[in-house]
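Troubleshooting entry. The earlier prediction with S-adenosylmethionine gave an output that would not parse, so I re-checked the input for stray whitespace and re-submitted. Clean input:
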Amino acid sequence: MSLRKFMHKRNKYKEEPNFKQLAILYPGFRKIAVTDIAGKVKINFKDVESLKILTKTLLKHDFNLDVDIPPNHLVPALPLRLNYILWIEDLLNHCGIQDLSTVHGLDIGTGAICIYPILFSNLYKTKMTCTDIDPKSIISATENIEKNNLQDLIEVILIKKESILKEALEKNEKYSFVMCNPPFFETDKGLGKKSKQEPPRNAPTGNANELEVKGGEREFILRLIEESLEYKHKIKIYTTMFGQKSSLAFLRNELTKKRIFNATWTEFCQGFTKRWGIAWTFEPKSELDLTTAPVIRTRAEVSKMKKDKSMEIVFPARKNLSCLNEVVTALKIWITELKIKIKEIQLADDDYPCWACQLIGYNDTWSHARRKRRMAMRQEALKKRRVDKSESSNEIDKLQNDESESTESEIKSVESNEPLLVCTLLVGEKSEHVDDSGDNDEDDSEEDTNNEKMLRICMLFESGTGGKLSLETLRQYLVNKLNIRDFFHKKNPSKPNKKKRKRKKIKKDQSLVVCQNKEL
Ligand SMILES: C[S@@+](CC[C@H](N)C(=O)[O-])C[C@H]1O[C@@H](n2cnc3c(N)ncnc32)[C@H](O)[C@@H]1O
């Protein structure tokens, strides 16, 4: 499946480049262009030379940049590079920086074209410093910078392998962001491993120095995280890209282990490849909250959530909750009342209308909500009555003791600065829908009898000190708010509700006593 529709919304390559126009305008491109029997102009993506000319032509046509790509070096695919750049722009905007000409960025492992710095300075006049350990890449990068007259904005540093950030931070005290496209593969395994997989759609480019590193991308990024702990606020936003899906969970886990909670991740989707990005900061959340920054997460996430039936609420549409919009509006009100942060997620899923967000709760405002409400009402009533001074002061003391007990455990989680619950919420109308895997989504349609319109809220636990239990209690809270307990009990008549079970138990106990009395 093409991932083009999940590209960043401002990525100009969301629309396929017009190859016919490029062939007319650029003789170099014309040489590699072929016209198929339907009259469509194409190029051979399995040919390295064609890829090189495509990148050079697009840089000229879309950015007025002239570059040389030395032989046997990585040919940067522009849609991915732009996706990463636009995400960084989003993160900077999110922390209040709208004018990117005022910031200074750092690009680790810039490569022979110096692709990220030349695009950043071309697009936004951003000041960039870039590093690499490969002297040949540094020479070529410098030539490309000078060719485009960008030497006032970009400085290049040849660094030693040992440290990732040290030398760049010796040159400049502070950076607004750091970006990095590290070598993906483990030394001596990378290129070999690649050949065992399905043949790549595009010709592989790049040499072992560019693509391989000891320990692979994980080791490299772990080193970057370690070093970030040393330099902390010297860089406002730390980011990196990576190429293996399995690294996502690993790296997020590593950040959590190192108690770096102000972090986020995104997907970069282009053509038929997906890459991932993570970002973290040591700034206080009051100034820069990355957990609420814009991200792109595609349907794989959505499908996963839809398959996880354990944490979902399915209920029939009804007055005031008759469609997706009404449910989302109600949820937003209830969740805001609970002082849970809502971070909307852009899903870019045109086929399945749904709304998704990440919820971040620091305080358990949803457990025992009824008890808390009752307690508040009693306290209010007591204050009003003020009849017997001694009696009421005793009772008020008792209530205050009760309250302080219940809030103490909550305060602990608030003070720890670590969220109690981070979860993803996906809300949609439960309609006939075939997902990516080809599974029909109506497999479990036991609940939607009588052709009633059904709505669905899926909840996926991400992290938090409260564990999955806190998600379950939040689910219970929403079930109560939606007032759909009766619907559940109608569906499962064999399982009476709590009140009925209690009544049944009392009846049973009473009849037992009667029997015992009779026996006596
Ligand atoms: C995958 S290439 C990325 C090139 C370019 N940034 C791009 O996206 O097309 C990785 C680059 O990192 C460089 N590199 C490897 N180890 C490094 C280190 N410790 N510090 C800086 N650069 C490093 C390599 O020489 C190579 O140019």
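This one parsed fine. Residues 389-415 form the longest helix (27 residues).
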